[in-house]
Design a protein that fits this description.
This protein is an alpha/beta fold. The strands form 2 sheets. A 7-stranded mixed β-sheet has the order 6-5-4-3-2-1-14. The chain contains 6 helices and 14 strands. Helix 1 links the parallel strand 3 (about 60-65) and strand 4 (about 90). Helix 5 (about 260-270) runs parallel beside helix 6 (about 290-305). Bound molecules: zinc ion (ZN) (2 copies).
Amino acid sequence: MNTVPIIDHDPKPCKPAAGQPVPVPTRLTFWGVRGSIPTPGPTTVHYGGNTTCVEVRADGQIIILDAGTGLRLLGQQLIAEFDEQPLDLTLLLTHTHWDHIQGLPFFIPVYKPKSRLHILGYEGSRHGLEVVLAGQMENPFFPIALHEVPANVRIEELKEVNFSIGPVRAQACVANHPGICVGYRLFTSGGSIAFFPDNEPYSETSPPHGLPGDPTADAQARARSERQRLIEFLRGADVLIMDSQYDCEEYRRHAGWGHGCVKDVVSLAIEARVKRLFLFHHDPNHDDAKIRQMEAQARELVAASNSSLEVEAAREGVTFELPAAS
Ligand SMILES: [Zn+2]
Ligand SMILES: [Zn+2]
């Protein structure tokens, strides 16, 4: 079964001098790493079957990246950890595809009157963010409407790409994925984390959306410039969590679908001088053995490039710490 990490919310790694604040590391936890649809069952136990949800704790903030079915587990953890204390949470949404919002109706903190949840994202493809999120909880899909939940839920459509969550600076960047979809980069005191759960890296063989299979010079030039734009956005990130749904052979059959392959994602991360890459948004048809194989392939690509990039496949229940700023 999935392992739920024991999170010490207030770790004290060393004894500080009197009056000196205790440095707290930035911590990220994977609650859902799967793409498209949950995949419970014996063949996905190791990496997990819940859809996209990552928790970042940094600089006094609890920031949730996407609200896939992994959000349900995070809700249980938060209630177990904080009991009846009021929670103040921020949820950043990359887009409103089902696998990124479906956990919201099952997130226990929204049923606690003292909790506050600030949801930030960009406009849905055809409707406003609030309309889309409320829609999945309307009768006949769900028994409780979003406006009826007891918590203080505030939905805010972002208009700018630069914003802040408390002391954490955030940036958004448009992703190459059908509809409106972004990736985020969070700048915390422990380092920066980039999150692109759904994205197809641009390459000259996979031109941007709207130009499927178009090998013209214009499409290639646009692909080159879009790729460079993404490299600049990711430059020097301490952690990159990125859609690596396919292997090379699968990707050939799915080019233009808006998801990445291991080879393109590794090459992008190396070029952007990212320090650690988590392969993410695992394909629902991939069992644990296949994901292990893709992780091994990613490491071979890194070794062949003589790069120092650390790479691993994201796994549900795992916490990763970035060192506290001194
Ligand atoms: Zn997705
Ligand atoms: Zn999507």
